Amino acid sequence: MKNRIKLIAIAATAVTIFFASNVKAQTTPPSVWRFGVGIEGGIPTGNAHDISNFELGGTARLQYGLSKNLALTLTSGYYNFFGKTYTTTFTDASSTTTISVKGRSLGMIPVKAGVKGFFTDNLYIGGEVGAGFEVHSIVDGGEKDTKLILSPAIGWANSTWDVGVRYENFSGQSNNYGTVALRLAYGFPIK
Fold first, then answer.
1. 75 versus 99: which is more confidently predicted?
2. Residue 11, φ and ψ in degrees, nearest 5
3. Please, what is the average pLDDT of the chain?
4. Comparing 30-34, 71-75, 183-187, which segment has the lowest mean pLDDT?
5. Phi-psi category of residue 50: left, alpha or beta, with phi > 0 → left and psi -120 to 50 → alpha
6. How many Å apart are CA 74 and CA 26, to the nearest integer?
7. For strand 123-136 and strand 106-120, is the pairing parallel, antiparallel, or unpaired?
8. With the C-alpha atoms ordered 29, 34, 115, 125, is the resulting torsion angle positive or negative?
């Protein structure tokens, strides 16, 4: 719970700092390609929360402005859901033994297409759909699954920075999980 509160506080602080800055209002000029690189952190939900407390990743995003208020996106990168450490205590008549085991991390390569719609200067809502390819399974020797990704987002962007919060759902093979993540990205136009 404390980690969630910290993530929300960090997100609110970042958005406030960027709103207070003096920036250009136009963020999606029509017919212009942009490229951005971002870092993100998230809190796993669903089945992923059973094995991980934190997700960290990096993404690259290609964006094309359809109009001044609408852009198409293509995003890929790498997410790592860090494995939890489990502690178990065994007690018998003569002694107590404590064992700590570090769980295996889950790696994921997302490939997503999406849309960003700006409803005011700099503020947008977005959505992405795609596939997530597990790099290794959560269980040693287990199957590496491919998941359907659905991801709504809300964010703030200017001509250089993009700060967004999203929920990302990974579903398929009777194992569904997700993450609530904050992404901070730096972008520039491609000429």
1. 75
2. -60, -45
3. 85
4. 30-34
5. alpha
6. 20
7. antiparallel
8. negative
Radius of gyration in angstroms for the set of CA atoms belonging to the chain, rounded to a whole number: 19
Contacts of 165 (CB under 8 A, 6+ apart): 11, 153, 154, 155, 180, 181, 182, 183
Instruction: Give, in order, the Cα–Cα distances in Å from 35 to each of 28, 85, 170, 172.
Output: 12, 37, 25, 30
What is the average per-residue pLDDT within 136-164?
A: 88
Our CA dihedral for 75, 34, 71, 155, rounded to 10 degrees, sits at 70
Whether 189 and 157 have beta carbons less than 8 Å apart is answered as no
Element (H, E) at 17: helix 2-20
Where does the pLDDT of residue 16 fall: very low under 50, low under 70, confident under 90, or very high at 90 and above? very low
Token output for 99: 């064992």
pTM (whole model) above 0.85: no
Beta-ladder partners of 29 = none
Q: Which residues on neighbouring strands pair with residue 85, listed in sequence order?
A: 102
| End-to-end Cα separation, the chain, in angstroms | 45
The residues pairing with 163 across neighbouring beta strands, listed in sequence order, are 156, 184
For 80-95, what is the mean pLDDT?
85
- Tokens in use for 136? 């290794």
Q: Which amino acid is at 83?
A: G
